[in-house]
Amino acid sequence: MARLMTSTAALVVAAGMTLSVAPVTLAQQAALGAMAPAAEDAAELLPLKNIILYRSGVGYFERRGTIAGEHRIALSFETEQINDILKSLVLLDLDGGSIDAVSYASKEPLNRRLAGFGIDISNVSSVVDLMRQLRGQGVDLTTREGQVHGTVLGIEERTSVVTGGDTPITLREPYLVVTTQRGVEAVAISAINSFQIADDALAEELDRALGALAEAKADRTKTVEMSLRGEGGKQRRIVAAYVHEMPVWKTSYRLVLPDEQGGAPTLQGWAIVENTTDSDWNNVRLGLASGRPVGFTMDLYEPVYVGRPDVPVPVDRGVGPLVFESAQAQKMLGRAAAAPATESRLSAADMVAGQRALTMNSNQGWNEVDLNDPNQNFNIGGAAPASAATGAEVGEQFMYTVDAPVTIERQRSAMLPILVAPVEGKRVSIFNPREMSKHPMRGVAFTNTSGLHLLPGPLAVYDGNTYAGDAQIPHTSRNQDRLLAYALDLDMFMYQEVKYDQTTMRFTIADGLVRKQVKHVRSTEYKWNNYDDSRDRTLIIEHPRTAGWELVKPEKPRATTENLWRFETKAEGGKTGVTFDVDEQQVLFESIAMVSVDLPELLAAAANGKVSQAVIDAVRKAQGMQSEVRTIERQLQVVQKERDGIFDDQRRIRDNMGRVDRNSNLFQTYMTKLAAQETRLEEIEQEVTRLVAARDAAQGRLNEFLNGLDVE
Description:
Blueprint (H helix, E strand, L loop, with lengths): L1 H13 L11 H10 L3 E3 H4 L2 E7 L3 E11 L2 E8 L3 H7 L1 E4 L4 E7 L5 H6 L11 H7 L4 E6 L3 E16 L6 E12 L2 E6 L3 E6 L2 H19 L2 E9 L5 E11 L4 E8 L8 E10 L5 E9 L38 H35 L17 H4 L15 E3 L4 E3 L3 E11 L1 E8 L9 E7 L9 E7 L2 E8 L7 E8 L3 E19 L2 E18 L6 E8 L5 E4 L5 E2 L3 E8 L6 E16 L5 H9 L5 H45 L7 H42 L6
Parallel strand pairs: 1-4, 2-16, 14-22, 20-27
Antiparallel strand pairs: 2-3, 3-13, 4-12, 5-13, 6-12, 7-8, 7-11, 8-9, 9-10, 14-15, 15-19, 16-17, 16-18, 20-21, 21-24, 22-23, 25-26, 26-31, 27-30, 28-31, 29-30
Helix pairs in contact: 10-11, 11-12
């Protein structure tokens, strides 16, 4: 019968008729309420037992409890946390009970909710926006000139020019256009003091829309209800766990230096934890994780609506009247006029057929299912893909677990001791010439022998019973060395002097070039005065480490970083003028053309054993061959200069010949001289050809000698 009523109701709605349903009576409501138990507070049935806070800004919360029978348990969360709950909630019944749906109040998008009112104020931010929404509605306006009663026609902008200053100002002002008994009037928006909507129902819709907007902003908490069912009075263990955003827990440290010689420093660590939730943490087991698991947010709370394509209604082509004419042209005209309608009909039919084909194809492979049949089963697991991976530990994570149960009231914070242990360490003075000009820093060189990982945080240093200064400790693994500075050492004065020197080491020949090996030496002298005659210092000098330079003295530093060498030495109390030297060297090679080498310099280096005789002989031979080339080039330049002079003289003679009589003696003299010059030019051309060939041959012999020449 229920199935029949459901089917009938579906048919009535599908046919477009209104279906009237009798209202539920108070007795029926009471019966339904008796069937479903009232929601109970989780603080009683599932108290908070375990909390793990992560450095990634989230917290893991675990609730445990024992129940019997059927219960609905309510958990309250801030609205901003609901997405995290929907993404991470785990609900387990460990003793065979069943878990029904987890229910919560739906969240309709605010814009969609506001669009459902008679006036959509989702995009209203001014009177102009509101008046556009009231187009066609009656309004009562109160203006500076009096009352205006009319119907809103629209909004228009008018431009006016204001003069009186140096530059005219153009103003654009909106006007409300209304129809009144007097006709169409335009009222400046700035002249309207107040207005009322004539339609009381529409005015009430506006009030409701504003109320919905205020409600959305004031809705701070949401309730999630979990329904659990079990047999009779059997006690069952229930676990509910979830993850949501939490403040990052922080660390701070204290380091106490001993008064007596040989004593070990004591390191104390504190965790700063904030309970920003609305629930008290009573006797919970608290874990503090240093790892940063992957985390993200996703809006699962707000409903998502997917747009659907708009398909036109299939319509058959209408049948038009037939007009019988005797002319053949009229028949052809009628046929041509019908063609577009036929094409339109075919296009619509094609669209409908395509939609039908899409529907049929999208249903292939599905079995027919009666959704009203309660005995129908769905095998979701059978359709799920098989697992493609096995669980494994990824990355490293260190966990601090507070031994004693922790109690922190809601909206309260606490400092929890997580570390108290002696560590290996000693007082030092640290000098870095790039960071300090005169005084080194007081500091501590210690090894993390506490057995725990140390997370970054501030560190307060106490020297005996006195506060000494602050430092900052980076991430420090077990047994890792750290150097911390906390104050200026005013009893120590440091000075630095840097000297540079270079020495030629050797000359060789490689690939026809002379390679000059030069050693550059940089010597840095650190000098200090220790005016504290009561205590020696362990001085650590941080010397800049430059790429390409190697350490010569001392042979080995105390420690090496990417940019520094650290040297450790003793600064005795009361002594001044003590020095510490750091020598570095860099060997560079200069390549010089053999014909450009300074031979006297080479001979002087040979006297010191830095150049072999074979190198000197090769340089001499190359320079001799180069000298031959240069001699020929000089001869060639002399001949070419003579040729250029003849050319200039011939231009002068030809210019003069154009001004004298051809039968004169001077003209004949010019002709004789030109003939002699032409004979000399022929001789010069032959000489140039010979010299160019000789020069190229000499240069070729030099190149052949230098090509691939290697001499040690």
